[in-house]
Amino acid sequence: MTDSTELRLMVEDFQPRQTFSLYVDGLFIQDVRVQQASGEVLFDPLPPGNKRIEIETDHRYPLKLKTVEVDNGAKISVSPINRKSWIHYGGFFGRATVVSRPRKVWAAMVSKKLNLRLTNLCFDGPVRFEPMIACMIRDLPAVDFITVGVEWGPGDEILEPSMLLDNMIGWLHIIREKHPEVPVVFISPMVERHRGVIEKTILQAVSACRAAGDAWVFSVDGTEIYYLEDYHQFGEEMQGVLADRFLDTVFFKTFC
């Protein structure tokens, strides 16, 4: 929250095309690229009066934020969070590295349409259900929705199905230590050589957890979101389509 008429970020070790999307009171205002000479990101002018500022950072690059600056004498404070929290982990389509503006990533579109606070945990490489990720999610004070895109990445590297099954169940049990009734959806691969094996393992994991009394774990067929004919169309033009399908298949059909 601030009444400043401009907002300046100073970024270290920035990338040439690093871009930031600015929202004021929930409305998109502008995309700004970092200035190459100084590492400055300047949002100017801002609407008058006190307002809630949100900045979506570039999903393609690490961020080293040095300072946040406002007008001399302007007020600045942390805005209270009154939105539900959504965590998405894994899945190659969550990275969206071909998209140049953070607000155009499908996950950002979903979170804006549902007014959710998004934590997008999509990394390069396969989904291994790392215990450290589960511990991080477990220790967050508020978690309302969790979705997992189970992708194993290119090549022949894949865990034995029994090991993948154990990892998935153990990963979920760590989260359940503090979030026993948060709905969790495992999404099967969309396009992958090992799709059949992974989909079968997901169904086994969900069945085992439900048999043990966990009624808040679900599975979704990833091909309902990302069709085979979409395989060579993963640019910005596809992000809105993916967002709409994700909303329909996961949030409206499964969570609701």
Main sheet, how many strands, which sense, barrel?
5 strands, parallel
Q: Structural class per helix/strand content? A: alpha/beta
Helix content: 25-40%
Rg from Cα: 20 Å
Secondary-structure element series? EEEEEEEHEHEHEHEH
Features:
five-stranded parallel sheet, three-stranded antiparallel sheet, Rossmann fold, alpha/beta, 11 strands, 27% helix, 2 domains, 5 helices, 256 residues, globular
What does this structure look like?
The protein folds into two domains: 7-69; 84-255, Rossmann fold (3-Layer(aba) Sandwich), CATH 3.40.50.1110. The chain is an alpha/beta fold. The model has no long low-confidence stretch (mean pLDDT 88). It has helices at 106-114, 131-138, 161-176, 195-211, 236-255; strands at 7-12, 19-24, 27-33, 40-43, 53-56, 64-69, 84-89, 116-121, 145-149, 184-187, 217-220. The chain is globular and about 60 Å long. α1 packs across α5 (236-255) and α3 (161-176) packs across α4.
